[in-house]
Amino acid sequence: MINNKILKAINNNIFETIKKHSDELNIECYVIGGYVRDLLLNKSAPKDIDVLVIGNGIEMAKKVSNELNPKEKVKVFKNFGTAMFKFNNIEVEFVGSRKESYNQSSRNPIVKLGTLEDDLNRRDFTINAIGVGLNSKNWGKLIDNFNGIEDLKNGLIKTPLDPLKTFSDDPLRMLRAIRFSCQLNFKIHTDSLNGIISEKDRIKIISGERIADELNKIIMTQKPSTGFKILESTGILKLILPELTALKGIDEIDGQKHKDNFYHTLEVLDNICPNTNNIWLRWAALLHDVGKAPTKRFAKNIGWTFHGHELKGSKMVYNIFKRLNMPLNNKMKYVQKIIFMSSRPIVLSNNNISDSAIRRLIYDAQQDVDDLLTLCEADITTKNLQRFRKYLNNFKMVRTKIVEVEKRDHIRNFQPPISGEEIMSYFNINPGKEIGVIKELIKESILDGEIKNDYESAKLIMIKKGKALGLIKNEK
Ligand code: ATP
Ligand code: MG
Questions:
Q1: Which ranges in the chain are annotated with CATH 1.10.110.30?
Q2: Which of 35, 50, 172, 175 best tests ligand 1's pocket when mutated (most atoms within 8 Å of CB)?
């Protein structure tokens, strides 16, 4: 089968050069995987190119790269029999055909050289096992041993061979199935879905960072809830993010119920997607309520409460990130901060908004204050349209106030108007706790609106407090 779209796509330097060398060496080459899949799906400009070489992939990569751009270095992964180079910003990866066998405790297979068929058999899904011939004799010819094209048309994710074996051999494929289903809006075939359910426990041999990779890809889709619902229903989520599944369910005591915080969380995550591509803000949305499970209480006269869930939740982030080998740096701190502060704008918007409350919000959130409001807006999941509009409008007022107050008082990037050195030199004193006391008072007075955020006003407060602390002894 020949397809015009494909012929057009491979009509370029990269593929022509591969053809030349594979003909010369009499070795078959195929472009395979995501590139072919995305082309057939009419996705705009597929990115990376995966080339299957029925023979030595590393040698082929070197020859092709050397001709395309002799200056470019080829990265070789000897253990995997793969090599890659970049050309015109596209990553071209060459992999030698393989036949794999696995042992129980690792997803790293014992790899042997294999035929085209062997290699197609070890692919994860039928839609990823479609190859296109790159030698003269089969230029542009589609190889589709498992009816992947049919599955592409029907929107189906399906393993080429027995799902139980495919998933047990490499359990990462279970996450890939769910990720592709979410990215492409495809259904997972019933047999494959049942395969995931029965092999789910095998996920334990997958490293945290591979799991995080797939979670990140799900989080960055347009509607991540689709992926998380499948993760949950197959039982995988409980194994990789038990903090989230702990939010599932609705309890009822004395006729009082609370909402299902798991499904609420998924709604919040979906809601935030059109408004941000910041992956860390999306993570904050996913985890913003995790503190609710351990803080849930019922009191007779009050009903359900989740006191302190923001602090608890922000503290839980560390263990989650560590387990998934995610960065424990300022990205994590950002997620923690957004979660910790997630109720602050809500409290604000329910009252008459005072300038000092706005100044404190800006002071505490600093450059993240807009992101914080973006989360709060996504957090409105009420189905009552009137209430929805009211809450949204309240946050709009908070945003307007922030702009007004910031323009006047410059609280973002707050720098104390008087430095510690100046306090020491004015009172002629050594470092000591008085300096902190004075600086704190100046800051508080500015945030409370008692003085302006400028040098002169701060100096007056400094002198007054210095006197009260007895720092000026011989005043006439
Ligand atoms: P994308 O790059 O959009 O995530 P892709 O399908 O190109 O999608 P890659 O991870 O780049 O995914 O892998 C390239 C190809 O290698 C896949 O299409 C698939 O055929 C095969 N593959 C990748 N990972 C696995 C796996 N764990 N098990 C089996 N085959 C795999
Ligand atoms: Mg790829």
A1: 156-240
A2: 50
Residue 34 Cβ contacting ligand 1 at under 6 Å: yes
CA distance 233 to 339: 26
**CA 176 to ligand 1: nearest atom:** 27
Mode of pairing for the β-strands spanning 131-133 and 142-143:
antiparallel
pLDDT for position 473: 64
- 95 CA closest ligand 1 atom index: 16
> Given this model, what pLDDT does residue 257 score?
87
Q: Is 191 left (phi over 0), alpha (psi -120 to 50) or beta?
A: alpha
pLDDT in tens, 299-349: 888 899 999 999 999 999 999 999 999 999 999 999 999 999 999 988 776
What three-state secondary structure class fits 226?
helix
CB distance 396 to 362 below 8 Å: no
Strand partners for 49: 92
Output the CA 183–ligand 2 centroid distance in Å: 14
pLDDT digits (tens, 9 = 90+) for 254-287: 889 898 999 999 999 999 999 999 999 999 999 9
Nearest-ligand number for the alpha carbon of 34: 1
Mutate to test the pocket of ligand 1, among 124, 157, 172 (most ligand atoms within 8 A of CB): 124
pLDDT tier for residue 351 given thresholds of 50, 70 and 90: low
What's the whole-number mean pLDDT along residues 77-97?
A: 92
State the number of CA atoms in the 13 A half-sphere of 48 facing the CB.
11
Residue nearest atom 28 of ligand 1, based on CA coordinates: 124
Kindly provide the b/e burial profile for residues 245-284, where b requires at least 16 CB atoms within 10 angstroms of the residue's own CB: bbbeeeeeeeeeebeebbbbbbbbbbbbbeebeeebbbbb
Between the CA of 47 and the centroid of ligand 2 the distance, in Å, is 7
* Ligand with smallest separation from the Cα of 90: 2
Query: Which regions of the chain carry the CATH code 3.30.460.10?
Result: 4-154
Whether the CB of 128 sits within 6 Å of ligand 1: yes
| 112 contacts: CB under 8 Å, gap ≥ 6 | 98, 99, 100, 101
Alpha carbon distance 430, 235 (integer Å): 62
Q: Which CATH number among 3.30.1330.30, 2.60.40.420, 3.40.190.10, 1.10.110.30 corresponds to the domain 156-240?
A: 1.10.110.30
Average pLDDT, the chain: 93
Ligand 1 touching residue 310 (CB < 6 A): no
Q: Is ligand 1 within 6 A of the CB of residue 123?
A: yes
For residue 173, the CA-to-ligand 1 centroid distance in Å is 9
Would you say domain 4-154 falls under CATH 3.30.460.10?
yes
